[in-house]
Structure formats: structure tokens, C-alpha cells
Queue: 2 jobs
Job 1
Amino acid sequence: VQLVESGGGLVQPGGSLTLSCAASGFTFSSYGMRWYRQPPGKERELVASITSVGGLTNYANSVKGRFTISRDNAKNTLYLQMNSLKPEDTAVYYCHAPARGSWGQGTQVTVSS
């Protein structure tokens, strides 16, 4: 099982980024997926989740209305569209397959002017 995140970087407040998570080694379409983040000096926190089928989503209150989680099961890829970014969104972002217990290596997102 492998999860590889990409798309992080430095962005100004108010900007946008789209994170991707390429999955391999398991039947991606059969599993719910999650995005987590770990801000500097803080614990890892759940950002968003999506079911395997139907694409039902859930978000942390801090990102609701600004972030969108989605998936392309044909491409075995999970996405996180992040809009109206704030400095407090600065963190390492991880994708996670909870039923497989698998984590990616993370991608750094820094929101700063």
C-alpha cells in the first residue's frame, strides 16, 4: 500500500492550492479516505473525509466552505481543493486510508505573505 501526496507549496493568504494523493497497492475505490494536517508544534487533526462510494463528505469546522475533498476512482487519486487559505492553514497535509492503516509521507503547505 502506498499513498503519495503532492501539490503543497508556499501561497499567499487568500490563495488556493490543490493537493493530490496517488494511491496504489489496494483497491482504492473500495475505501473511504481522509485528509489530515499537522500544524507546527501541534497534533495531527482531521481535515476532511470522503466515503468510498457515493462520495459523501465531511469537513472540520475550521475548513468548511473553503476546502473540498474529492476522488477520482479511475485514477486512484484523492484530492483536496483549498481556497481562501489562511496562515493558520499552514501544516503538513497527509492523506490516510483508515481501513488500511496507511499514511502518505505528507506535503507541506505554507500560507504566508
Note: The mean pLDDT is 96.
Job 2
Amino acid sequence: QVQLVESGGGLVQAGGSLRLSCAASGSMFSIMGWYRQAPGKERELVATITSRGRTNYPDSVKGRFTVSRDNAKNTVYLQMNSLKPDDTAVYYCNAVSVFGTAYWGKGTLVTVSS
């Protein structure tokens, strides 16, 4: 049974930093990453990373957020710097297994105060 367990969310002031972690179990994953959903908005991509370390970011977080992974631990991280109030959202871990199935974590809330 595949499980994704996120941690690291919380409240931070604008300009601050947070680090999210997601520990995955139950399979091997080719792509891991993070999405977020703000109130009243659709879920959007934040960052992805392949098992070989290739990363992808939208312009909205490029240069501020860094995704990394520990393949031995099946864990993906998201280092978020220079946070803005617009980054406030529920952040979801996503992992795509080597068989092509996508899995989601339950989400962790990040709140950035101005």
C-alpha cells in the first residue's frame, strides 16, 4: 500500500523560509514533487524532480523554491525561501510510481503572513 506522509508546514512571516518533507513508501517512484492549492483556486504545480535529479518549476517559484530528493529514503523535500503571502496554500506531495500511477499526500498547510 502506497503512503505519502508530508510534514513541515506552518505559519511564517513574509520573507521567511520553510522546508517541507514527504516520505513515500510502498513503491518506487520515478517522479516526485509538490503541488499547491490556495482557497478558491485550482491545484497548481510547484516543483517536480525525477529519480535522476531533473527538476521543473513554474516561474512563480523559480529562484525561491528548491526541490530535492533522497532516493534511498524515498523522500522528497521542498525548501521554500523568500516566502510571499501569495504562497499561502495547502501543499500536496505527489509521487508517480515506476508503473505510472500517481499518488497524493493529504496535504500540509503553509500560511505566509504579511
Note: The CA atoms of residues 53 and 68 lie 8 Å apart.
